[in-house]
Amino acid sequence: MNLNDLMLEFLRSEGYRPDVTDFGLAFKVEGLSFLFLKDDNDDQYFRLMMPGIYDINDDNEYEVLKALNETNASMKVVKLYTMGEDDDRDVWVAFEILADSTPELKDFVPRAISLLRAGRRDFYQRIQKD
After folding, report:
1. H/E/C letters for each residue in the chain?
2. For residue 118, with 0-12 CB atoms within 10 Å meaning exposed, 13-18 middle and 19 or more buried, which class applies?
3. 3-129, which class in CATH?
4. pLDDT digit string (tens) for 57-88?
């Protein structure tokens, strides 16, 4: 079974209602959106993301990049980066690891979700200081 199928099975067993998409899985936890992005070329690459947590524009770009960098430097495993182009850019939070060939998702998915939320919270605190 591939990682995408394992994640789908895990989410359903935990009571989530994931949507199967071309890119992987989409689901919500307490109103927050999460994406599991499958990688057809690397079945051990586990990438869970929170998309579009903050809009970027020309007026706030420096502050966003500064806060994003500070959050990245202060947290384990989680990283924030920008997505999009020109006038349609935003910040995403990612949890990325290499899973073994028989991953026990219950051992790390809840922590991944918690770390993504913590990364989002840390970024918001930093961006509000500027």
Report:
1. CCHHHHHHHHHHHCCCCCEECCCEEEEEECCEEEEEECCCCCCCEEEEEEEEEEEECCCCHHHHHHHHHHHHHHCCCEEEEEEEECCEEEEEEEEEEECCCCCCHHHCHHHHHHHHHHHHHHHHHHHHHC
2. middle
3. alpha beta
4. 999 999 999 999 999 999 999 999 999 988 89
**What confidence tens digit (pLDDT) does each residue in 86-123 have?**
889 999 999 999 998 888 999 999 999 999 999 999 99
Spell out the residues 6+ positions from residue 63 whose beta carbon is closer than 8 angstroms to its own: 127, 130
Give me the residue spans of the domains in the chain: 3-129
The amino acid at residue 128 is Q
Does pTM top 0.85 for this prediction? yes
- Is 43 within 8 Å of 63 (Cβ atoms)? no
Closest listed residue to residue 49, CA positions, set 99, 94, 91: 94
